[in-house]
């Protein structure tokens, strides 16, 4: 899919912010995630701003990186999955075609 996430960082950010889902830390250039407009965390001298938070894959909740990887393991390259993300406080659904290396 082309994102980076970390289980320990995710747990801490969820606890601090009260969110439930996978905090997208980084989006890889030219990835499926970038093509659909996913945004990662932005860090500046003033602090950190969360980007998108993944909350479901094809309607099934994902609250941990391990669960996300398990869900993605059910699909193959070329499959189109529906990601539900929280984007700037609003829930939205995105169709993502899985690419090699996802």
TrEMBL record:
Q: Where is the PDZ domain?
A: 1-89
Name of the protein described by the UniProt record: PDZ domain-containing protein
Keyword list (alphabetical) reads:
Hydrolase, Protease
Instruction: Give the matching Gene3D superfamilies.
Output: 2.30.42.10
Pfam families on file: PDZ_2
> Which InterPro entries does the UniProt record give?
Chloro_Bact_Ser_Proteases, PDZ, PDZ_sf
């Amino acid at each position: 899919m082309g994102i980076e996430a970390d289980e320990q960082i995710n747990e801490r950010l969820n606890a601090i912010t009260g969110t439930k889902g996978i905090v997208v830390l980084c989006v890889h250039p030219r990835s499926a995630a970038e093509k659909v407009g996913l945004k990662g965390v932005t860090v500046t001298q003033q602090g950190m701003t969360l980007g998108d938070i993944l909350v479901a894959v094809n309607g099934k909740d994902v609250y941990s990186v391990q669960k996300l990887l398990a869900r993605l393991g059910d699909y193959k390259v070329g499959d189109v999955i529906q990601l539900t993300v929280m984007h700037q406080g609003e829930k939205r659904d995105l169709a993502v075609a899985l690419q090699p290396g996802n």
